[in-house]
């Protein structure tokens, strides 16, 4: 006897819409910061052309590598895998690689602090933390007009992420697509993500991500 299963059209439409939202969010949080960093690097390279052509050439080589990394992220997104840098370097290494790229072309002093030992965590947690940190740093260098920024990572039953800058803050940061995406990533893991004024001015982002 042949059985026929009927999936309601409304359910299919909801699934398709959710899939589109997921892809758009991953593009915004993953490839977006990579391309923003490359754009900043190209601006720096253009400024170096007259005064330091060799330095401009070295920077262009780095930017070429970053473009290839962004292409890898797109391929990973299509294959539903972890971002290329997280898969290659782990969470901390991927964050430090992204921060090193920003340092090479900006006047913002960015420090990464790992407080204590961070045990292995599920891939979904590592990817969420990495995406949140990248989006937060992109907001800092794009909107905050900051001079310093500190990224802190620590583990205490949950994986904690903190990004603190001494900039002016921005309404776009606290109400835009990026914050909604960061909050959603944390919420999907049963955690939370919030943005608030820093103790000494600037902005503080804090996220807590459960690992089970």
From TrEMBL:
Top EC category: transferase
Classification via InterPro entries: HATPase_C_sf, HATPase_dom, Sensor_HK_TwoCompSys, Sig_transdc_His_kin_sub3_dim/P
Annotated coiled-coil segments of the chain: none
SUPFAM superfamilies: ATPase domain of HSP90 chaperone/DNA topoisomerase II/histidine kinase
Entry keyword annotation includes Translocase: no
Source organism superkingdom: Bacteria
Keyword Transit peptide assigned: no
UniProt domain Histidine kinase/HSP90-like ATPase: residue ranges: 124-212
Record keywords: ATP-binding, Kinase, Nucleotide-binding, Phosphoprotein, Transferase, Two-component regulatory system
E.C. no: 2.7.13.3
Entry GO MF terms: kinase activity
Annotated catalysed reactions: ATP + protein L-histidine = ADP + protein N-phospho-L-histidine
Name the record gives this protein: histidine kinase
Organism this protein belongs to: Lentzea pudingi
Encoding gene (name): degS
């Amino acid at each position: 006897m042949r059985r026929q299963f009927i999936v309601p059209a409304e359910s299919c439409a909801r699934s398709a819409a959710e899939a589109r939202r997921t892809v758009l969010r991953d593009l915004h949080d993953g490839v977006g910061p990579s391309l923003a960093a490359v754009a900043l690097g190209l601006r720096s390279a253009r400024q170096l052309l007259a005064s330091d052509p060799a330095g401009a050439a070295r920077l262009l080589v780095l930017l070429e590598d970053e473009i290839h990394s962004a292409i890898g992220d797109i391929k990973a997104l299509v294959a539903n895998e972890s971002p290329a840098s997280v898969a290659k370097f782990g969470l901390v290494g991927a964050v430090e690689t992204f921060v090193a790229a920003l340092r090479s072309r900006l006047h913002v002093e960015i420090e990464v602090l790992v407080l204590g030992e961070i045990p292995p965590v599920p891939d979904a947690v590592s990817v969420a933390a990495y995406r949140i940190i990248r989006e937060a740093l992109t907001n800092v260098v794009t909107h905050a007009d900051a001079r310093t920024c500190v990224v802190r990572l620590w583990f205490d039953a949950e994986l904690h992420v903190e990004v603190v800058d001494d900039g002016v803050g921005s309404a776009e940061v606290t109400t835009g697509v990026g914050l909604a995406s960061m909050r959603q990533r944390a919420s999907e893991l049963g955690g939370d993500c919030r943005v608030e004024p820093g103790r000494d001015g600037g902005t503080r982002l804090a996220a807590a991500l459960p690992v089970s």
